[in-house]
């Protein structure tokens, strides 16, 4: 269990967890079990930076600084996947062409525009919330959306050859105990940090993930590593947008 957690921390962050011990390659096949737990670290850091930066900067700049900190922490792993996702599905008309474009390390027009609009929506949405609410939802949105996105590996096959996997292995489907533990790490922050009127919004990342799963099944018949990063970020963004809508309804 510790090896799998360490593998997830090594994969999803740039912190030197790999120095603690050598992680067996097999452990990386089970990192999705711990994505939501890693979200406590990445979401917690983002929320803390947001709280601190807001004391010195306007709301929108504080949000930029907070998510820039997360990008540094994760090495832009998810954003790279999002850019490749937009490039592949924006420019590819066949399964083979879509996968080839996503594999290309160069970023294209669809990738640039997709990431730019994603960032604008993210910053604008979170900055529009009161600071305390924004800090809470950022701490909640990361692990919740990581848990939602991790369901890709449970319902879709990996569509590339093993040797093309970025981590050198293919994610295994979660067992029942692993899924329950992942669910606890994913949902608990929402239960603890979100006021009860916002609890219905917790369903949004799962609805978006479900829609993207259907889309991926139809277009390429499965998922890639880039798809995992993209589904996480898009589900998280949808969560923030839904919180903003819910907040507007409550104060209106």
Notable traits:
252 residues, mainly alpha, globular
Description:
The chain contains twelve helices and no strands. The chain is mainly alpha-helical and 252 residues long. The mean pLDDT is 93.
Q: In one word, what is the shape?
A: globular
What are the segments in which pLDDT stays under 50 over at least 5 consecutive residues? none
Give the radius of gyration.
18 Å
How many strands, which pairing sense, and closed or not: the largest β-sheet? none
Q: Could you tell me the number of beta strands? A: 0
Question: Beta-strand level of the residues, as a percent range?
Answer: under 5%
- Treating each run of at least 4 consecutive H or I residues as one helix, how many helices? 12
Mean pLDDT: 93
Query: How would you spell out the order of helices and strands?
Result: HHHHHHHHHHHH
Helical content class: over 70%
What distance lies between the first and last C-alpha atoms, to the nearest angstrom?
Answer: 47 Å
Look at the helices and sheets and give the structural class. Answer: mainly alpha
Q: What oligomeric state do the depicted chains represent?
A: single chain
What is this entry, summarized?
The chain is mainly α. It has twelve helices and no strands.
Topology:
Layout: H1 2-12, H2 25-28, H3 35-53, H4 59-74, H5 77-91, H6 95-103, H7 109-127, H8 131-149, H9 152-155, H10 176-193, H11 204-219, H12 225-251
